[in-house]
Amino acid sequence: MAAPATQAATRAAAADVNVAKNAGFESGLSNWACSAGSGATVSSPAHGGAAALKATPGGQDDARCSQTVTVKPGATYTLSAWVQGGYAYLGASGTGTTDVSTWTPDSSGWKQLTTSFKAGPATTSVTVYTHGWYGQSAYYVDDVSVFGPDGGGGTDPEPGIPATPSGLAVGATTSSSVALSWSGVSGATGYNVYRGGTKVQSGTGTSATVSRLAADTAYDFQITATNSAGESPKSASVRGRTAPGGGDPGPGPAVPKHALTGYWQNFNNGATVQKLRDVQAQYDIIAVSFADSTATPGQIVFNLDPAVGYASAADFKADIAAKKAAGKSVIISVGGEKGNVTINSDASATAFANSAYALMQEYGFNGVDIDLEHGINSTYLTKALRQLSAKAGSGLVLTMAPQTIDMQSTGSEYFKTALAVKDILTVVNMQYYNSGSMLGCDGKVYSQGSVDFLTALACIQLEGGLAPSQVGIGVPASTRGAGSGYVSPSIVNNALDCLTHGTNCGSFKPAKTYPGLRGAMTWSTNWDATAGNAWSNAVGPHVHNLP
Questions:
Q1: How many Cβ atoms sit within 10 Å of the Cβ of residue 236?
Q2: Of 185, 330, 418, 453, which sees the most CB atoms within 10 A?
Q3: Where is the Fibronectin type-III domain (predicted)?
Q4: Residue 257: alpha-carbon gap to chain centroid
Q5: Which residues are CB-contacts of 25 (< 8 A; sequence separation ≥ 6)?
Q6: pLDDT value for 230
Q7: CA-wise closest residue to 463 among 493, 444, 442
Q8: Residue 157 has what pLDDT?
Q9: 349 vs 363: CA distance, rounded Å
């Protein structure tokens, strides 16, 4: 029997490792080969680290990207990768036994694919690969793992502490905020922002807006880069001065009596990438998705994603101004499926109000959309919105997009909040999708995907205290826009007719009509564009022609 120390050494020597090289694409396409020039590395979306693979199929090319890894004959390996976007395949060939593959259809978020293979008795190398499907959307891959015994090729070394960031510069300033940008650092997975030597926020991008600052005051800023190995030294300091007090984003246009709301994606998830100028003219309220949270509870910032193609923040701001000049309202949305902002104290309520107003001043947003899907505290969210309203004035556009479960009862936190801010609330566009069956206002159970689901659930809000002008119907723009609950534009229009005219109803017919109903909402303008604008072309005119 071996001594315990010898056993431990044997186990350590035989420990499984990831034999894939550059598995997170932090070194570009090093160690990888992609067919027909189909592959490139991007900074967003990234599952881990600062980069991911983006591979774009063509009509005659499936965008195959592969790497040959060294394996131990006869050993078993677990192959996995995180993917999103269009159709994505993961496989291994040349195993010497049975080649394997797995796949997933298009996915709007990161999804892990996993399979396993056994190397043949004489096999020392295996090709692992990803590919999409001919003529389909681009797919993204990150954090590939071929986990098993070291075949002699080793694995990627552990990351070192990243280098000190350079190029720190001050951008746009308001009376309460300073925008910063800097050059990215290879191997960094995040960045810390320091003000006067104290860390004030963290993020993964190469820009940040520091808010809650005093007017007409100079501040010194530094940046550090971080990863799992640690934090870099602080960068050289730059000084930024806030603008004098006052400042106003300017009044926005009045929201139409009947309005169409669309969410604009500040990211690329496989839907058509748009600049704001490309958003379809039918949309009256454009919700920019999404603001980002910071290390300060309640505080929000906005980081323009390079994936949407703007050359500068100034270009983005110009698009906002142009949309407002065209009679549209552009608001910043807070939350979403993956986002979360915690507002559960007086301090966090104030942080939210101050930072949201700072974004309105900096970018020209007309207001905010509350799309918090991880629970809210009505008491403090109400305080936050009241404070924001006091700063922004009567021109504030305030919308909400709760999930169906959040609006089943006036006692729910979301419903309580909507009623508590009713005098400043523009519209609640509940999400009638990604939902199970729910109760209608008649006490009956309705399943999503029908006109009855839309009308019977809207009735709860209409009879629960909201004005008809504060109720809208929120649905996906296409089957790819949500996991479930898509309905055709004709069903949406039938629901609008049922609620406003009492016509085209299903089995549920409201006891009275609500001709002042605000309209409809969709996720998203990008998915609408992907589907040839079918949703806005059908629902937009119908909304605008309501009584």
A1: 11
A2: 418
A3: 164-245
A4: 29
A5: 32, 41, 49, 51, 52, 53, 141, 142
A6: 85
A7: 442
A8: 66
A9: 21
- Provide long-range contacts, Cβ within 8 A and 24+ apart, for 495-504: 495/451, 495/454, 495/455, 495/458, 496/520, 496/542, 496/543, 496/546, 498/451, 498/455, 499/455, 499/458, 499/459, 499/462, 500/546, 500/547, 501/547, 504/451
List the structure tokens of 309: 């193609």
SS3 (DSSP) at 177: coil
Distance CA 63, CA 130 (A): 8
pLDDT tens sequence across 139-171: 999 999 999 999 887 777 666 788 899 999 888
Identify whether the C-beta of residue 343 lies closer than 8 Å to the C-beta of residue 298: yes
Supply the pLDDT for residue 11. 38
Cβ neighbours for 354, distance < 8 A, ≥ 6 positions apart: 176, 211, 212, 299, 387
- 539 contacts 260 by C-beta, under 8 angstroms: yes
- Of 231, 337, 373, 413, which residue is the catalytic one? 373
Q: What pLDDT does residue 249 have?
A: 46
Does the global pTM surpass 0.70? Answer: no
Plot region of 49 (φ>0 → left; ψ -120 to 50 → alpha; else → beta): left
Residues listed for the chain: 547
pLDDT of residue 248: 44
Query: What are the strands, taking DSSP E only, across 74-229?
Result: 76-85, 88-93, 100-104, 107-118, 125-131, 139-148, 169-173, 178-181, 190-195, 198-203, 207-210, 218-227
DSSP 276: G
Q: CA-to-CA distance for 376 and 368, rounded, in angstroms?
A: 16
Which of 483, 426, 468, 431 shows the shortest CA–CA distance to 453? 431
Q: What is the spatial distance between Cα 146 and Cα 77, in angstroms, rounded to a whole number?
A: 6
Q: Name the one residue in this structure whose structure tokens are 């703007």.
A: 310
Report how far residue 397's alpha carbon sits from residue 132's, in angstroms, rounded to the nearest whole number. 42
Q: What is the pLDDT of residue 339?
A: 64
- 373 is known as an active-site residue: yes
The tokens 């019977």 sit on which residue? 456
Tokens of 286: 């454009």
Q: What is the phi/psi pair of residue 496, to 5°? A: -60, -40
Nearest CA among 212, 215, 188, 184 for reference residue 200:
212
Low-confidence ranges of the chain (pLDDT < 70): 1-14, 157-159, 245-253, 337-339
H-helix or E-strand containing 397? Answer: strand 397-400
Distance CA 289, CA 261 (A): 13
Q: What are the beta bridge partners of residue 403?
A: 431
d(CA 40, CA 65): 10
- Check: CB of residue 57 under 8 Å from CB of residue 136: yes
3-state secondary structure of 437: coil
